[in-house]
## 1
Amino acid sequence: MIRISDIVAAPSITGAAAVGWTIAAIAVPTAIRAAVDSFVSGCELTIYLPFVMLVAIFLGWKHATAAAVGSIVAAQLLFMCLGHQFSLGSCDSYSIGVLLIGSAAIIGFAEAFRSIVARRSGSSSGIVFSLRDGKAWASWYGHPTPVQLGSEEEVAEMMEDFLKQIELGKRLNRPKE
């Protein structure tokens, strides 16, 4: 059973996939904005905010920050430049400021929510074991980098030994009848 706390407690997409999704979170709203460019002006950056939010939820604050900054660069180069000259007028500065403030609020809220859910579910100190390419990994909620423990066979043997040691300790510490 998948719990919402497991999805929210830590970014659910990491590594190269996260980079790809971050790029997509810049490219998709840029394509949408380009599609309406001929009859819309003055709202170059609003389309990016929902995508920054999705990145903050599923990829974490670092990728969301990259998406926000990348969105500003894309919009500046494609929609805000007059005659393909890099310029920053007062309207552009205001739009960029609003996107940065909105993105910071969204990212902060997503991280605070993630932290609260992790604490309430008790998963902030929980260890998650996983297998990838025959290797066992351990990761902790809220920490983006997993630790490789060894091969599946080695780790399974160590875990079995660990469980046997716990059982032996319980038997030895059992009160005498």
## 2
Amino acid sequence: MGFLGITPIYNAILDLPFIKELTKGTLEEEIFLFYLKQDTMYLAEFSRALAIAGVRSTNNQQMHDFFSFANEVVVVERELHESYYKQYRVGMDAQKSPVCFSYTNFLLSTAATKDNAVNIAALLPCFWIYREVGLQIHKKARPDNPYKDWIATYAGDEFNQSVNRAIEITDQVAEEGSEVQRKQMMEAFVKSTELEWMFWDSAYRQEQWPL
């Protein structure tokens, strides 16, 4: 998947108030915690979609990699979230926002009903976008940023290696697929990228269900 295909969306993500204020360290604690709780619920479903990609993979190495990705999400990122819950003395007491609900349903329905190549493409933005955004924030953030642990996770070498492998797998699957599959993969890749934008935007607004 080419990053150029989502450049306008990626630039719009960097321009979001959530990202700008997170970079400056001025993002309100209430907004960050709302985001964190939504992300906890999102990652649980993202991990399931990764595991499905592993189950459906015909390549043994790719199967192993997707199971590893799923495990990393459960262990590493859950530890990050729980450290903030402990720091701010809060619990996990939220329901999915409309966007979180839409994004996770998109990933799980794609994993269950679409070609696995399309599933793999839909999963890639959560890797790639977070790495790129994390690196951009890391360049500008001050050492005393209250969200430095979050920034360090997504700008770190370990996450970078996972992202590179996810890109490599997606490119390999695309090369092996048909033109129709590649078109469907790009559509799913773009849709997930749009949902990434919506996820951060909705967190900043602390989006709720209308009724």
## 3
Amino acid sequence: MKAFIFDFDGTLVDSVYAHTLAWQEALAASGMSCPAWQIHRRIGLSGTLLVMAVAREHGRTLDDDEIKRLDKRHSKNFRALAPECPPLPGAVALLAHLKKAKIAHGIATSGKRNEIKGALKSLSLSSDAIIVDGNMVREVKPEPDLFLLCQKRLKVARADCLVVGDAVWDIHAARRSGILSVGLLSGGFGEQELYNAGAMRVYKDTRALHEGIEELGFE
């Protein structure tokens, strides 16, 4: 293995539950009250897919303008709830190790740059860090576009890359891209769920991954 491709929310930064609450408030304001756990299960999908799924459960069909308004309301709520999401345990140390060891790595997230810029600063990334966000591709997870673009920018073959994510949507997207993946428990999905989705290994968080990095063919 020569390169890591990291998901962002729930993998590197503690933002999954802030996104959950932000969506819950946005949806409730549009007459679609939804238990937090149902939203949490969909974090990592595009906002459009998340909203369409909840709307379907409420027997509603939303047009593009309504979906865009909900997405904007979610973004506003999220910035108010979590303007700077903290790194998850081990994230900063792992990224620093990869930089020092000259192991290629990048971030591929469905999130938009205006939502993630505060949290990006907390990771102490270098100015040349490779970051692919949801505005840079046509389709986001569970489609493979994010990971494929990140892989191309890393200039490493798919067979030499490894996706690291916390949600089944990350694992599904990795499988569709032809890139192997490992799962982390730091976003709230269970170990067996991640294995069932196709993860080759599952770790508690980035700290645990760092401690066992040689198991994955890295040093």
